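Encode chain A's predicted structure.
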Amino acid sequence: MTTNNSPIVVWFRQDLRIRDNPALFAAHQTGHPIIPGFILDDESSGEWKLGAASRWWLHESLAALNDSLNKKLCLRAGPAQKVLKDIVKESKAESVYWNRCYEPWRIKRDASLQKSLTEQGIEVHTFNGSLLFEPQATHKSDGTPYKVFTPFYKNKFLGKENEPRKPQKAPKNLSLTKHKGVSLKDLELLPTIPWHKKLAKHWQPGEDGARARLKAFLKNGIKGYKEGRNYPDRNNVSRLSPHLHFGEISPNEVWHAAKLKMKPGGLRTDGDTFLSELGWREFSNNLLFHFPDLPRVNLQKKFNAFPWRKDVNALKRWQQGQTGYPIVDAGMRELWETGYMHNRVRMIVGSFLVKNLLLHWHHGEEWFWDTLVDADLANNSASWQWIAGCGADAAPYFRVFNPVTQGQKFDPEGNYVRRFIPELKKMPVKYLHNPWDAPEKVLVESGVKLGKDYPRPIVKLSDSRDRALEAFSALR
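Encoded structure for chain A:
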């Protein structure tokens, strides 16, 4: 038990908020002064060090959190095993509180750190502040982990006995103590070339931004969500993923706010669909917890023999949005411009990379890790394995998204493509998703010269599909 009035260190991690923060709330209830701290640990994370877009978001989120904490946030950088011990020793704190994280490297680091602190007589109190249900308590009746989403969601989430806990309110009159650290600028999270300024036009990182985004979605986006979420030019997406990843809002607050919207007479079908998306986030975290090699190892071992191609030029054209397929290129350019990509389009560009180009899903995973503001190890790994066909509950190998028909179906007026590919903005919708089929006269009138203003297709769809099916069929 913490004695006298010694301070408590609250270690912020992927929970950059005041409201519904179990570790902060529990520390506050003790009545002891609180040292809030954040450690940028790029050493322990290894190859999963934050990508460039995520680092920009973290910088902004830490600034917002520091403001919420009356400028009392202690910032440090270095291996947490050493830095946290230093803070405890310097401050004479006798206990540390944190919310648990679930990436394999964090689990390993935190277990070692907790053991070491406890052996030194320091109390460690940990809580669940990131997930609706923790993966160590989520498994089938036979004790094995779920590999299929539907039974996972049905058995864990549906039914009153499985209702996620209600969110806590923000603690009032926090007793905060400032402890020496470095400045936010000293963490060097921002790039030297200010490309990040374009991201700031699209986002408001921080707890206030997260709650504003939730409010806007529930007011204007959730109605029609079940169908509208498939159309990238519509407003039926929550865009809460980066806020949830950095813990600027808890999944419990999002869940119960959506449920409130679904009360009798409310948006039952749309709301249920949205809640199931929160379930997919949980499912991905469960997969990563039970299969810690998920970011690098095929869950279906037969894919270890898959004949992936190596084509540096094709990969570069995919990354730059220069494949010659408008819906694919629009998605990749949206990603570069905003740090985000619509989920339907993520599936289309992912399928194109691994099936039409036959490039390893690791290339897509790594590019998304660096460029997405919502880059999340569990979601990113599970989703790329799903689209490649090698993961849990994966898309069947013969499901190859046709970017032309996908564009025609989900961007029928071409608003999304025209937004991100302005060189095609005058192209009539009949040929917008397949400009190579346009008569020369139409191309001239649209101001498009294929191969110059906009690239010709990098591959022929029918040939690349046949090649993919042959490669996938061999695995059976």
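Strands lie at 8-12, 34-40, 74-77, 95-99, 123-127.
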